Amino acid sequence: MTEDLLARHRAVLPTWMPLYYGDEPLEIVSGSGRRVVDAAGRSYLDFFGGVLTNMIGYDIPEISAAVSEQLATGVVHTSTLYLIRRQVELAEKIARVSGIPDARVFFTNSGTEANETALLMATNIRRSNQILAVRNSYHGRTFATMAITGHRGWSASSLSPLQVSWLPSGDRVRGRMRGLSDADHIEVAVDELREVLATVTAGDVAALIAEPIQGVGGFVHAPDGLLGAYKKELDEHGILLIADEVQTGWGRTGDHFWGYQAHGVTPDLITFAKGIGNGFALGGVVGRADVMNAVPAISFSTYGGNPVSTAAGTAVLDYLLDHDLQANARRVGAILLDGLRTALASCAVVAEVRGRGLMIGIEFVRPGGNEPAPATAVAVFEECRRSGLLVGKGGLYNNVLRMGPPLTLTEEEAREGLAILVEAIRTADAAAVR
Ligand code: PMP
């Protein structure tokens, strides 16, 4: 059945669409809690949540009820040209939790559109097409967002009219930040920012956009405080800071509700998507009123902020606040992170176990050095699937395993997944050093 679907997929969808698990792709047909079931009836513990999208989990009664209530009115959506009560209510809640005083919210259908919108605002208010971005970033799949994506494998076009200058990523396994203390890392990065501003830009840069933890880039993150140190420099030039919180928002990082809070800074604009919809298409920008209001002509999204997706978003936000899922992410994430670090300390193929909360990456290298080992990552990734655990892959060299389970993950489930991961990685380690 799934084989037939794969053949039909290949015959009708473009060749460049990525599919996990090669010739044995996964077709998920149902889910409950943190588990999904495939077309062959196999059950999996889900440590990837559809790329950190299923933030609450599957089949959550509160979310289904909110969506069903809207569907029961007979209106899926009419138009954002009319007042939408659910949109206003969700905007009020997001403005309140954003950390930005007097914030405004604009809803989109995806993270890409959210970033595109943030770029529109920043470039308009600053009357500049110059953007600072971070190497190894991912921000979307439109012309503009691909231009600020610092990852060759995900940047299929360079045709955007934006002028982009690059700042170093937080990679400490290799590259210039290797072996540096946090303080030195920040100093080198701020020096780089100063140099970029003094040399390759025309002095009127619109914004810096950064993911507090790089998602697609393999959960690489700079030391806490770096964005705050950058902001001091940016403020001298009036340059805006955009935090792309598409993966890091809503308490996922455990210690903080937003990733930016680890940096002692408040961004001018925050972009969000993925988890807030828990599967429904919902994204947006929340930001300073003066920046958000500065778009000179009417801008509109047919489906952005529709009643069904905002009903889902409201139920998700209420659920995660009512159940303090941020605290759960901190507690259960620590079990996973500490457990992995301890169990894998002697594995020669593991260069780094990193992340925070329920956003954890494991980077694989060839034993004895720091040469990326994508084949080891694939072997572990596939073995996990065979053992009933779904995880993600990523990183600049495709050598990082990514875990971003629903924030409702229980301690027992964390330990179950941990055991599978450790077994798979130790087996791969033994094979690599043999
Ligand atoms: N920003 C980040 C940090 C992301 O991880 C992604 C998606 N992987 C996007 C933006 C784009 O979001 P979408 O796929 O919803 O357009």
TrEMBL record:
Its cofactor is pyridoxal 5'-phosphate. It comes from the Bacteria. Its EC number is 2.6.1.44. Keywords: Aminotransferase, Pyridoxal phosphate, Transferase. GO terms for molecular function: alanine-glyoxylate transaminase activity; pyridoxal phosphate binding. CDD domains: OAT_like. Homotetramer. Belongs to the class-III pyridoxal-phosphate-dependent aminotransferase family. This is alanine--glyoxylate transaminase. It comes from Krasilnikovia cinnamomea.
